[in-house]
Specification:
The chain is an alpha/beta fold and about 650 residues long. The protein has two domains: about 230 residues, Rossmann fold (3-Layer(aba) Sandwich), CATH 3.40.50.300; about 300 residues, no CATH class. Helices cover about 60% and strands about 10% of the residues. The protein has a nine-stranded mixed beta sheet with strand order 5-4-7-3-8-1-9-10-11. A two-stranded antiparallel ribbon has the order 2-6. Helix 14 packs across helix 20. The chain is globular. The protein starts with 12 loop residues before the first helix and ends with a helix.
């Protein structure tokens, strides 16, 4: 059975994590043992069979070894992410029960920071360039310890200096394999965002902290972009949308009479880009600061913090199960495809040579016809996708040029905009604020656009129909490979004595199993675009293009006097210089990265399956052993493979 735990009170959080950790380790060890057995089985296979598997699943040996290593490590990271100043480090300290991570008002986290259980307080800093790790114990006062940690995890520059930092701490909430992870603030810098998205593929659980005090609170484009970036790199990572928790921090700053309205608005915005979201089990409202004050004073956990701990108790098994299912799914897929290539040999050995030769020739022709249909279908898909895509480009371009958007950008909230002291500061401040503002209003418009939604659905339907049609072609080819003219003889049957063709659907999947994360990929990519910076690649705009020191001072004085007016003018000129080609270029990149990824993967898998079947037919045609010799060799192998699948 997958992981289950009984209900507990929040005060037992540490013991719950230990229970979950122990059960997870047992499941990991059991699955690791089967993987090793499968690896030994594949090593003993006929070289032609392993060549066909390699054609079908390129790099399968490396992947098998990698999965084994992951299971043996037992790592179960809980990644905490969020925008800068949302309260990530404060929440981590609250979970740990003491102030481990320092907090900085002037600097930001620029590196992954793993908090793991240790017998003593120490730090290991991993370099980016391959230099020796920096290791030291944390001694002295609490302030001194924080100061030492700050040197390696915080930076005023948005440039990562280290690969990661490990902090070992004797905390009861940290157990074997389970550890907490702090990450760079989301949305500040694309390089720092990549650090977080890259790490997400390793995480068993994901806690996203949202600063409720910020205007709008939820920035759905930022949180979903992190997920999408991770999936585009490692789509089989096992991230499950139900293994994510959203913490609306600083909830005490929301007026009581507005709480329900704010909840409705924030959940609505979050669900637009997170269709799998369950507000009752995945969203929590609290003040981390107040909870920490209660904890320090000995009052005990607040009601809101208690609810969060219970949510984490339920969240963690979801993430662990998802990871284990991905490992299991890979093994199952590998063994079932292996079994298919073995069975094909038994089928071929069950018929006379004078029948086998023309049948293989016919199968080759069938495979060639399927290849031609795939080429034609992909051309149809490309043309249809381009038509739908151009419709979306035109609509977005028209909106970016509209009076409605210009009016939207006429007023600005400048409360949190500091006075600038240099042209460089002015440029970065203006560009960042205008980019974020345009990105947010455009994302909201696109998400609400019926016309864009229709174009998106038309494009999706076209892709689905074409891929399903070609998948049917491949299934017919494989059915024919596993069926002789006179049907299979008993000598070529699998161990359970069912006809070979009867087990085709069950035994021969064409695609790797995907997790529920695909639900995320069905959300319109257009709802998560960060438009401005990527779309509008402009030279320095005239408002900032100062040459002399007098001009620079005049521009800075003008900005400091009224930042809102300045940014409104900048935004107007910004959009005036926008071209349709820049919109098209950006959306084209996003379509490839975020939306076509899974379809491309399916096409790749179908193509590799075709190549493997082509190799299979060549090997069957070139077989020189007698039929009885082939059956003697491969029947026991088929039985062994079936036994592994059933284990």
């Amino acid at each position: 059975m997958w992981l289950e735990v009984t209900p507990v009170t929040s005060g037992q959080a540490a013991s719950v994590l230990k229970e979950i950790s122990d059960k997870n380790r047992k499941l990991q060890r059991d699955l690791s043992a089967v993987l090793k057995e499968a690896d030994l089985f594949i090593q003993r296979l006929d070289v032609d069979v392993t060549s066909e598997i390699e054609k079908n699943i390129p790099g399968f040996r490396f992947e098998l070894n990698n999965v084994c290593q992951q299971l043996e490590s037992g790592d179960c990271p809980i990644l905490v992410a969020g925008e800068t100043s949302a309260g990530k480090s404060s929440l981590l300290n609250l979970l740990l029960g003491e102030d481990v991570l320092p907090q900085s008002l002037l600097s930001t986290t620029h590196v992954i920071c793993e908090l793991k259980r240790g017998t003593r307080k120490r730090v290991v800093v991993h370099s980016l360039d391959g230099d020796d790790d920096i290791q030291f114990d944390l001694v002295g006062s609490e302030e001194n310890q924080k100061r030492e940690i700050s040197k390696y995890i915080y930076s005023k520059e948005k440039v990562p200096k280290y690969k990661k930092v490990e902090i070992f701490w004797p905390s009861p909430i940290l157990h074997e394999g389970i550890f907490l992870v702090d990450s760079p603030g989301v949305g500040d810098d694309s390089k720092l965002d990549s650090i977080t998205s890259n790490y997400l593929s390793q995480a068993c659980a994901f806690i996203y902290v949202i600063n409720t005090a910020n205007a709008g609170g939820v920035q759905p484009d930022r949180v979903l972009r992190i997920i999408q970036q991770s999936l585009s790199q490692i789509p089989e990572s096992g991230f499950h949308p139900k293994s994510a928790i959203f913490v609306f921090n600083k909830w005490d700053q929301v007026p009581k009479w507005e709480e329900e309205e704010v909840k409705v608005q924030m959940i609505k915005r979050l669900q637009k880009s997170w269709p799998e979201l369950d507000p009752t089990s995945q969203v929590f409202y609290m003040s981390v600061q107040k909870a920490a004050e209660c904890q320090r004073s000995g009052v005990g956990p607040t009601e809101d913090f208690t609810k969060l701990l219970e949510g984490i108790r339920c969240l963690l098994p979801e993430g662990l199960v998802s990871k284990l299912k991905i490992s299991y799914g890979f093994l199952d897929y590998l063994l079932r495809r292996t079994y298919y290539y073995i069975r094909a040999r038994l089928v071929a050995a069950a018929e006379d040579v004078d029948k086998k030769t023309p049948r293989i020739q016919s199968l080759r022709q069938l495979l060639d016809n399927s290849r031609k249909r795939l080429t034609d279908s992909l051309q149809t898909l490309e043309a249809g996708t381009e038509r739908c895509f151009e419709s979306i480009v035109q609509q977005l371009y028209d909106y970016l040029k509209s009076d409605a958007l210009e009016n939207e950008l006429a007023s600005w909230d400048t409360t949190n905009i500091a006075e600038v002291s240099s042209i460089d500061d002015l440029e970065s401040t203006v560009v960042e604020n205008v980019d974020n503002r345009i990105s947010n209003v455009v994302s909201e418009w696109i998400a609400a656009s019926d016309a864009v939604q229709r174009a998106y659905e038309e494009m999706n339907t076209l892709k689905t129909d074409i891929l399903r049609s070609f998948e049917d072609d491949i299934r017919k080819v494989e059915e024919s490979i596993l069926t002789t003219v006179d049907d299979a003889t008993p000598a070529a049957q699998p161990a359970d004595d069912r006809p070979l063709a009867d087990t085709l659907t069950e035994e021969s999947p064409l695609f790797r199993p995907q997790t529920a994360v695909l639900g995320l990929l069905t959300a319109p990519v257009w709802a998560v675009l960060t438009v401005a910076a990527a779309v509008i690649s402009l030279p320095v705009i005239g408002l900032i293009a100062a040459q002399t020191s007098i001009e620079k001072r005049r521009i800075m004085n003008r900005f400091n006097a009224d930042p809102g007016v300045y940014m409104s003018e900048y935004a107007r000129e910004y959009l005036k210089k926008l071209t349709k080609d820049s919109v098209r270029e950006f959306l084209s990149e996003e379509l490839e990265k975020l939306e076509m990824r899974m379809e491309r993967l399916k096409v790749n898998e179908l193509e590799t399956t075709m190549e493997a079947n082509k190799k299979l037919l060549e090997d069957l045609s070139g077989e020189v052993r007698s039929n009885s010799a082939v059956i003697r060799e491969f029947q026991p192998v088929a039985n062994e493979c079936q036994a592994l699948i059933r284990d």
